[in-house]
Amino acid sequence: MKIIILFVVIMSVVIIFPSLADETNKERNWGIGVQGNYPLWGGISVRYYGLSPIYLQAVGRSIWNGNDRDNMIGSGISYAVFEYKKKTITRLYISLEGGLRYEKFPNWIWIPETQTTYETTTKKTTYGGGLTFGIEIAFNVFGTQIGFNTEFGQGFGKIEEDKNSRTTASFLLGAGGHIYF
Description:
mainly beta; Porin; eight-stranded antiparallel β-barrel; 1 helix
């Protein structure tokens, strides 16, 4: 039943609401969708384009499965270096992004001498940030804009697991899709 309700809401946003809107306005200020970046975050994304050529984005998710937790929140600010607007909108942008991820999960320890196992709980917090370069293409479908983006760059961060802490650096690779209204 929840899936059916979610499907109806999404289809209303995609098809019905844009058909009621003014078709002459090809620019939409808000976008909602899914965004993911390796290695730190991914989830539901909200974008704001009202400050063009500066764009804001927030990403978040919360997964609870019994005692397991996987929560994430991230944000970014982008500057459109190049923007082409005709039937489709193409943006080439530079983005400064950051995020926080908290994980809590069971960890089984095997003791070979006594041939027993016991369960411990591992808590892991990851802080990260990075600079990415990306491209987005938004086109009109059923009277609304649908955009797809991909980005790559360099990231840095800190991982705290139980009482251990280490810094890290990584290549960032991301992709997403959004519906603008």
